[in-house]
């Protein structure tokens, strides 16, 4: 099978491209497994100075693969996502994201885990979990450490879409603008920095996020599993897949 995460190397940067457009780069078990493996490989490659996460298609990541979630073990998926996000945060090399499409739910966790992210004017963002009978549980580990609290409360509760300017202003992403151009000076600076300097500097900026993982990861994984297994979530996910309103929205 063709990989769901394509790997390329450009001038000391490992470019990891989410390439599962048939389900809008949803976080299927296979995609999560491939992305984790690619990150681990980049961490051990002495030629790699930084990792750049990007995508094909009009969606960077749609969050959980709901078609798979209806039939899978929710606890395994929640812990797998927590492991992936922590890997991004702990990686001893900067992880950047270049987004030129839409981001929903779990995809926002990927962005919050990255050290630097840029999104273009065509990008939109939404925490859609509450509309499905769920909550942004595991992704809160990086998101609530990065994002302005009032903004997080509004968008967690309403599920509203917001644009890249709002995402940058509230701390969810770093830069709003054409992502390739916006990230050029960041990557140029990284290439001039030593591996030791990068690793230790990143550790300073991610310490609070890692404390959140140490304190809350298991509790939030259990919450996610409980919600995914609930009757309301089954109705919400089924309604989404059937393109209808859930019973509580009628």
TrEMBL record:
InterPro entries: ClpP/crotonase-like_dom_sf (IPR029045), Enoyl-CoA_hydra/iso (IPR001753), Enoyl-CoA_hydra_C (IPR014748), Enoyl-CoA_Hydratase/Isomerase (IPR051683). It comes from the Bacteria. Pfam families: ECH_1 (PF00378). SUPFAM superfamilies: ClpP/crotonase (SSF52096). NCBIfam families: PRK07827.1. Belongs to the enoyl-CoA hydratase/isomerase family. This is Enoyl-CoA hydratase family protein. It comes from Streptomyces polyrhachis.
